[in-house]
Design goal:
Elements: H1 3-15, H2 18-25, H3 29-43, E1 48-51, E2 54-57, H4 59-87, E3 92-97, H5 101-116, E4 121-126, H6 130-138, E5 144-148, E6 157-164, E7 166-171, E8 191-194, H7 200-211, E9 217-221, H8 225-233, E10 238-242, E11 251-253, E12 256-260, E13 267-273, H9 281-296
Parallel strand pairs: 3-4, 3-5, 8-9, 8-10
Antiparallel strand pairs: 1-2, 5-13, 6-13, 7-10, 7-12, 11-12
Length: 303
């Protein structure tokens, strides 16, 4: 059993295809299959089930995949830390984020970090959801992932950075625009723009409403918070969205008015990592810089 055997096996489990992994590794499907067969011989169990559309790990395969993925990730991080110790502060910090995360949560931190650490590059990988960020973090050499905090995920540590209050986004000429706040119960009478249906933020909003015995009516579904704000700006609907750093609430964001919905439990966002104590010094420095900037610019909802 070699490290290459384990790397290939984890890749096959994630891709669900021997041929896809062979293409990625620029080798033959037979070579990929040999890695898996060697593991099966040494463990004495079947690790993959063949199906018409690909392969899936068996129960034993899932056990090995989880252990191998965690071990490989830890080893990759350790090797990167050793290189930094030898080479000094160089290299890269690799971050998984949502589509608009950098602009809303990290723009100030990126500038500050680059000024302090000019020899370290920042690499961002866009994912469509917190679930995608978790998967990317577990299956690659990424250092950090910016996520909406959710239930525990095996092998991942989550740390809250800032709580985002919920607001109702409406056009400045909307009858609700002049309100200092809106009661959550009033939203049941409105037709709203729905946050991405499979997102953690949408699930959090649903849970916060359920705590109050509320159920909203949705007209339109969008891919991200920015699109919800844009539709509200165009007068095409009203949206319940998190207030982002730098926003004073209530307040005007151009032609959009943000009205607090104080009864709803805030949305927590922050960092996810495999292990905080295994972060490289550069990755920890970037994470801390983002924390400082976010907390300094945390949205407020007034009295």
């Amino acid at each position: 059993m070699t490290l290459d055997d384990l790397r290939v096996f984890v890749a096959v489990c994630r891709a669900g295809s021997l041929s896809a992994v062979a293409r990625d590794l620029a080798c033959t499907q037979s070579a990929v299959s040999q890695h898996v067969k060697r593991l099966e011989r040494e463990t004495g169990v079947s690790l993959l089930e063949r199906h018409p559309r690909g392969v899936v790990p068996t129960r034993a395969g899932r056990v090995l995949e989880a252990a191998a993925a965690e071990g490989i990730a830890g080893l990759d991080l350790a090797l990167r830390r050793l290189r930094e110790l030898v080479d000094g502060e160089t290299g890269a910090v690799r971050v998984a984020t949502g589509a608009t995360t950098v602009r809303h949560f990290m723009s100030e931190a990126v500038v500050a970090f680059r000024q302090r650490h000019p020899r370290v590059s920042l690499e961002f990988r866009t994912e469509s959801s917190s679930r995608g960020c978790f998967d990317a973090l577990a299956g690659s050499d990424l250092d950090l992932a910016w996520i909406t905090l959710g239930p525990p995920v095996r092998g991942i540590e989550q740390r809250a950075v800032v709580d985002l209050p919920w607001v109702l986004a409406v056009r400045a000429d909307d009858p609700l625009a002049a309100r200092p706040s809106v009661a959550a119960g009033e939203l049941q009478d409105l037709r709203l723009i729905r946050l991405p249906p499979n997102s953690t933020s949408a699930a959090h909003l649903d849970a916060a409403c359920a705590e109050l015995g509320l159920r909203f009516t949705f007209d339109t579904s969008v891919a991200d918070w920015d699109t919800a704000l844009l539709l509200a700006e165009l007068g095409l609907g009203r949206a319940v969205v998190p207030a982002l750093p730098g926003h004073a609430v209530p307040g005007n964001q151009g032609p959009v008015r943000l009205v607090p919905v104080r009864a709803l439990r805030p949305l927590s966002v922050g960092w996810a990592v495999r292990r905080w104590d295994a972060l490289t010094p550069s990755a920890r420095a970037f994470a801390d810089t983002v924390v400082d900037c976010c907390r300094r610019n945390a949205p407020t909802t007034g009295p």
